[in-house]
Design brief:
Elements (H helix, E strand, L loop, with lengths): L1 H32 L1 H27 L3 H7 L6 H16 L11 H8 L7
Helix pairs in contact: 2-4
């Protein structure tokens, strides 16, 4: 009985390279057939990354009054200022066109923690 199990396992192990090679050939064929589509997807991904960098930069360059009202002024502490900037960028990334998607007050407090006024 033990020999049967061992032989079955050995047969499965011997078949593995053939299965892997077949999968590799299928993948290569798929990539060749869809090369143009993959190029468009790659271009789209790069464009999305560029747009995200633009939005992140713009969010900190020109902070809307609504965001300053919601988050308060930039803190003096380096650590708190870093968190504040991340919140400003998060609001910027939540923009759709000219419509500002405002986070809930409670979520902002959780994200920033409770700061003392004027810190």
């Amino acid at each position: 009985m033990g020999d049967v199990v061992v032989e079955r396992e050995l047969a499965l192990l011997r078949a593995r390279p053939a299965v892997g090679l077949a999968a590799r050939a299928d993948r290569a064929a798929f990539l060749a057939d869809h090369a143009e589509d993959l190029e468009r997807v790659d271009l789209l991904r790069r464009a999305e990354r560029v747009r995200e960098v633009q939005v992140r930069t713009a969010a900190l360059d020109d902070i809307p009054d609504d965001v300053t009202e919601l988050l308060g002024p930039p803190p003096v502490s380096r650590e708190e200022r870093s968190t504040w900037k991340a919140a400003v960028v998060g609001v910027g990334l939540g923009q759709i066109g000219d419509v500002l998607v405002r986070p809930l007050q409670g979520l902002v407090k959780l994200f920033l923690g409770r700061r003392r006024a004027g810190v």
